[in-house]
UniProtKB/TrEMBL annotation, chain A:
One of its GO terms (biological process) is regulation of DNA-templated transcription. Component of the 7-subunit TFIIH core complex composed of XPB, XPD, TFB1/GTF2H1, GTF2H2/P44, TFB4/GTF2H3, TFB2/GTF2H4 and TFB5/GTF2H5, which is active in NER. The core complex associates with the 3-subunit CDK-activating kinase (CAK) module composed of CYCH1/cyclin H1, CDKD and MAT1/At4g30820 to form the 10-subunit holoenzyme (holo-TFIIH) active in transcription. It comes from Rhynchospora pubera. GO terms for cellular component: transcription factor TFIIH core complex; transcription factor TFIIH holo complex. Keywords: DNA damage, DNA repair, Metal-binding, Nucleus, Transcription, Transcription regulation, Zinc, Zinc-finger. One of its GO terms (molecular function) is zinc ion binding. It is found in: Nucleus. This is General transcription and DNA repair factor IIH subunit TFB4. InterPro entries: TFIIH_Tfb4/GTF2H3 (IPR004600), vWFA_dom_sf (IPR036465). Component of the general transcription and DNA repair factor IIH (TFIIH) core complex, which is involved in general and transcription-coupled nucleotide excision repair (NER) of damaged DNA and, when complexed to CAK, in RNA transcription by RNA polymerase II. In NER, TFIIH acts by opening DNA around the lesion to allow the excision of the damaged oligonucleotide and its replacement by a new DNA fragment. In transcription, TFIIH has an essential role in transcription initiation.
UniProtKB/TrEMBL annotation, chain B:
Signal peptide: none annotated. It comes from Rhynchospora pubera. One of its GO terms (molecular function) is ATPase activator activity. The keyword Nucleus applies. Keywords: DNA damage, DNA repair, Nucleus, Transcription, Transcription regulation. Component of the general transcription and DNA repair factor IIH (TFIIH) core complex which is involved in general and transcription-coupled nucleotide excision repair (NER) of damaged DNA. It is found in: Nucleus. One of its GO terms (biological process) is nucleotide-excision repair. This is RNA polymerase II transcription factor B subunit 2. One of its GO terms (cellular component) is transcription factor TFIIH core complex.
Amino acid sequence: MASAPSKLYQDDVSLVVALLDTNPFFWAAASLPFSEFLHHVIPFINSLLLLNQLNRVVLIATGTSSCGYIFDSGDGNASGNSNAVCSEIIKKLEDFVGKDSKIGKGSNGDGTRPAISSLLSGSLSLALCYIQRIFRSGTRHPQPRILCLQGSPDGPEQYVAVMNSIFSAQRLMIPIDSCIVGAQHSAFLQQASYITGGVYLKPQQLDGLFQFLAAVFATDLHSRNFLRLPKPAGVDFRASCFCHKKTIDMGYVCSVCLSIFCKYHKKCSTCGSEFNQAAPDSTIPDQKH
Amino acid sequence: MPQVRIVARNFMDMVAALPAAKLDKLYDSSFICEAVLRSLPPLAKKYVLQMLFLDSPLMAKSMEEWVLPDGLSKHKVAIDRLLQLRVFMEVNDRKKEPSYKMNQKFQSNMQKYLTTGGTVPREPMPLNAAVRLPSVGELETYAMEQWECFLLQLINSSQVDKSTSFSSSMMRAFQRGLLNSSRDNEAPRLTENGFQFLLMETNAQLWYIIREYISSAEERGMDPTDLISFLLELSFHTLGEAYSVNTLTEVQRLAIKDLADLGLVKYLQGRKEGLFMPTKLATNLSVSLSDASSRKEGFVVVETNFRMYAYSTSRLHCEILRLFSRIEYQLPNLIVGAITKESLYNAFENGITAEQIVSFLQQNAHPRVAEKMPSVPENVTDQIRLWEADRNRVEMTPSHLYEDFPSKDLFEACCDFARDYGCLLWQDTKKMRLIVKGELHQQMRDFLRGQR
């Protein structure tokens, strides 16, 4: 069920912004090594560029403490040797991961518990800004979409930022596709793909990743009206509370700004409105059976 | 406008019409595989990508499950195209169920492209050549000039300042279908197809000319297959780089001179050998192989008071606008005109339809108005269509009127006779009058004479 309105496109020129998860904590323990992963992703990028002369691909790396642009096919170096492009991507990824881990160590000081989730909100924002720049460049622009290759688990502290990015994408009518290469489903990305009208997929066999990517995620927005694409069985709509960033099913909602809290507060921290109701006796009302 | 689309896509149809052996030989070159892939409809491209790494054939029924019910017609079109171009080959297994497999050479070429990346057909010349290379901007102006000169010569040979070096028989071959001389001592007039041709966008026009060029290639001793592969390769060269003529085969050398006249390449004389530089027209060739998604900047602003402002200096644009509007005056960078009833009636007489005019205006809308919805004001588009419909209000059929019938039976007999032949147009039983189509007149007279 498409819950987002989509523009009607007549041709298949696309701009794909791919967000690569480069969280070293995830990749160290993953079943598919990172180099193998790249062996699937880079031919996929080549195939996108092959399909149409005007297609553009942008790679953004999602680190643990930062995000960065890795590759932009519209950069000016015309076609060129793909081998050079491939090695350039790998080199830039290595530089990025090095910088990212330095930033991570620096802010944590003496190495408190390192973040195990990657900065999805940051890379989504980078992608949306890039696409907005493309929109403003003129009338003739390719159809944009965002592809998230995510492996690390969701960080509940990013809930607000990720939801804001998702709503911006919905308003700009940019579908967010998600391909989960990790072990667990991601509630954020399920919601993202559901709200923006993208495709959410967790491939069962990671050694066939290229085939999954080519079969599902290479579809341009025009053809999506005609092809049968995977639909998720159910969407995990759980939210995280704004005060402690815990994932919760039941909680308190501010009636003015709809912020979610797990414990009773006298005043809403987002909009400042005061709650006049008296505090309940216990924490959460117990279930009646 | 289905007719125009057929003309533009015919190049790939021509490739598909090549005999199987020649087509397979064409697929030896990975550029042609790329170009063919890019020319496919979007659904077909997806299928190729999906089947690229599959070794065993896939049943047609399972492919049909990939599409939603809405997409079945597009699915059929895509599969037909793939079979036509021999990218997919049909394999019949023991159960007599059709299944499809990819062409071996095509598959291996594309697999190599994806894993190791594309290459260029030939290396550009090193930069220390003594001759000064034109910049990309100069190349573009050169290409546009050449192309316009060629087009102007095509439609009206008397108007050009300098003519291209095409022989008159070549020009006549190009003009066939576009121009015809109504009277011997009068200049040839554009036919309906000619007008449609002018209103197409540049890439479509280019492909039409190239198609004619290739069709007539055999008479001039050039193998069409070589020409096709050379043209497709040309689109993969880098814009702005010079390539040595020595790397071309004999056939290609002959073709280069003609292509230079069309504006596809610029021919230069280097220190020791000839050089050629592909222009934007050449590198965009494979973009336009498939449907018309025009990526050019428009130049026409249409106002709600039916005035038209075209920001262009090209004489060709002036001629095209003159087809359906009244050009009032021309300024150094602007052509001012008005869309009037007379000018439109003129256009309709010449066979241009309202839809073509409207889509020409919409596709070439100036960027300032292109973002507005609609880019051409509705009152203008509606009025153009209404004026066209005006011409259809009255339909004329040559016919004969029969009256003064002596008896009612004779009148009835005549009516039945005419009705049997499907030529009865009108009858008035009270006054016993009959109108019959003109072609039946002779037989009607014989019938009446027989009845008397």
